[in-house]
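User: Let's play a game. I give you a shape written as tokens, and you guess the letters that built it. Ready? Here's round one.
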């Protein structure tokens, strides 16, 4: 699939908005983590995601259910399972890793996804694009400031979860427009709730307060919206183009921190913000230049 300049800009906007929505979801889920185990939280949120989508489709778009027999639903199921494994791997690593370290590992995802896009999706990426992603990752590290002594073997678990997320996004791109986006999110909700439910069979879960259930229900709406924006971004623009804009999650988190709690970044984090923004602006400039040259070449080529 090729993308126009308009699709490219829309894809970046969608990915950036998705990161904001996921951050809101994470903030809401964090309110519940002190009172419920991770698998119970993941199960409830996944069940809400699946339930909301099923109700919406049954009421407003029942014709979409015919796609359940589409061969592409196999890859949709694979995508959902990868999302579930990614969620458990990353949440599991948080019990043994400081959050900044786990986040820094998780944000290596754009590099992994760009590599997968080259190897399996046939996308063309110049060395400057790779360099800009690496520079952006360096900026993220400056902002997060993980401690070297805190990295341990559970860093591999966080890395495994990040790789699952990258493969999930590559599958999303490969599915294209074959399956409605809501069915992809439905498959994710079902798979996540299923895996979490199996995990809870032998652990047992404590009763949850109605307030916590309501919080997870609201969080699931942000997950659905974030998933829709992510899927749309990967459908209309190359994965290697939109992947680096996952770094905007860091910028969103710092903006929310300032608005809600008045937190200001230290000088090192401030330098990291400049690096991340500069990396994104450079990628925008390079892509616009590449597309302009391609258009000029096509116009000059005789028919």
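Assistant: Ready! My guess for every position:
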């Amino acid at each position: 699939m090729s993308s126009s300049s308009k699709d490219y800009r829309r894809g970046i906007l969608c990915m950036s908005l998705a990161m904001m929505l996921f951050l809101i979801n994470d903030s809401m889920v964090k309110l519940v983590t002190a009172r419920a185990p991770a698998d119970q939280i993941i199960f409830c949120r996944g069940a809400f995601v699946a339930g909301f989508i099923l109700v919406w489709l049954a009421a407003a778009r029942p014709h979409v259910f015919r796609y359940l027999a589409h061969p592409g639903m196999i890859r949709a199921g694979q995508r959902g399972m990868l999302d579930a494994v990614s969620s458990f791997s990353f949440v599991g690593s948080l019990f043994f890793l400081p959050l900044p370290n786990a986040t820094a590992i998780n944000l290596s995802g754009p590099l992994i996804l760009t590599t997968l896009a080259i190897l399996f999706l046939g996308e063309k990426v110049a060395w400057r694009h790779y360099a800009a992603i690496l520079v952006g990752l360096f900026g993220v590290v400056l902002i997060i400031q993980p401690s070297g002594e805190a990295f341990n073997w559970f860093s591999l678990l966080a890395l495994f979860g990040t790789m699952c997320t990258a493969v999930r996004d590559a599958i999303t791109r490969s599915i294209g427009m074959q399956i409605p986006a809501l069915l992809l999110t439905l498959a994710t909700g079902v798979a996540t709730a299923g895996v979490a439910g199996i995990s809870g069979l032998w652990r047992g879960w404590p009763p949850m307060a109605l307030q916590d259930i309501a919080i997870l229900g609201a969080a699931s709406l942000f997950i659905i919206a974030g998933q829709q924006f992510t899927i749309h971004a990967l459908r209309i623009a190359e994965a290697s183009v939109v992947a680096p804009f996952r770094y905007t999650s860091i910028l969103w988190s710092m903006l929310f921190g300032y608005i809600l709690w008045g937190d200001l970044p230290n000088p090192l984090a401030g330098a990291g913000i400049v690096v991340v923004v500069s990396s994104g602006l450079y990628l925008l400039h390079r892509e616009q230049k590449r597309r302009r040259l391609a258009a000029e070449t096509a116009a000059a080529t005789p028919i």
